[in-house]
Design brief:
Shape: globular
Number of helices: 17
Low-confidence stretches: 249-257
Radius of gyration: 20 Å
Distance between the termini: 51 Å
Number of domains: 1
Structural class: mainly alpha
Order of helices and strands: HHHHHHHHHHHHHHHHH
Protein name: YeiH family putative sulfate export transporter
Helix content: over 70%
Amino acid sequence: MNSNSVKGFLVIAAMSVAAWYIATLPAVKALSFSSLIIGILIGMVYANTLRNRQPKEWDGGIKFCSKRMLRLGIILYGFRLTFQDVIAVGPKAVLIDCIVVIVTILLGVWMGRQLGIDRETTLMTSTGSAICGAAAVLGAESIVKGKPHQTAVAVSTVVIFGTLSMFLYPIMYRSGLADLLTPQQMGIYTGSTLHEVAHVVGAGNAMGDQIATDSLIVKMVRVMLLVPVLIAMSWLLRKKDSRESGANSCETKKNKINIPWFAFVFLLMIGVNSGLHAMFGDRQWLTDSLKIVEIVSTFMLTLAMTALGSDTCIDKFKQAGAKPFYLAGVLYVWLVVGGFFLVKCLA
């Protein structure tokens, strides 16, 4: 980066540090709002106030955060997962995760077409609802090449409905509406249907230790599915674009498959983490080291979210209209209602 790009980077970094601090405040932690969510909100405030006064030469630093930092953050996210987690939850929970992810994305794509929503917003919203909220939206964004305001809209939908579920699930459990599910089933239900990891942690802790543990493991297994989803998405989009552009040589060059290499490295990091846990168990030095990696990963993703927010003007939200929220609402009903009966039947 040149000196001007560094200035743009430092602006995003300063806002990200502010987001990190705000996310630690007790009132914000009680809502399980992560620094990623706070970051995009601060970025949006900046986009609609001071961004127009920023020199154009700074844009390189902002783009660096929204692209490079994003992929590095997702790669390091792999150190939160182990293949041992998959074994721990059992094949039924993994099957439920797979069904939830596949049906949510397919339903989202179909609904997006019915509502006339652009492909980028549809895929990012569907992937975010299906897998892990904002982090999945960012992963999909790197494949579909969505515009910043499209990414912000997709993130907004998963935040709104995920937060709603975080309060709804404990209420259902405490009021007896979820009595048809055992604590283990409730853990699977929570982990396989809530949007953000933070939402799962918040809801799980409100329902007891067993549900908190089971739901988090199921959720992290669901996060692992981000890799095959991104690979499949990249391949299918390439095929579709090739068909639409015709088969002449010029167009074919433009439609080379966009291989998400960072997704493979993400999977490799899961393998490394699994090996470290198998060899050293829960030794303090390993726990401390992984905690540092988790902090670095979260801050990188916060940088990416803040940068995306800083490219998002309110006028672009107005252009998107209410349709993306209708789409997210349909997916939300499927996750809450369909997920309940799915867990009841299979778990």
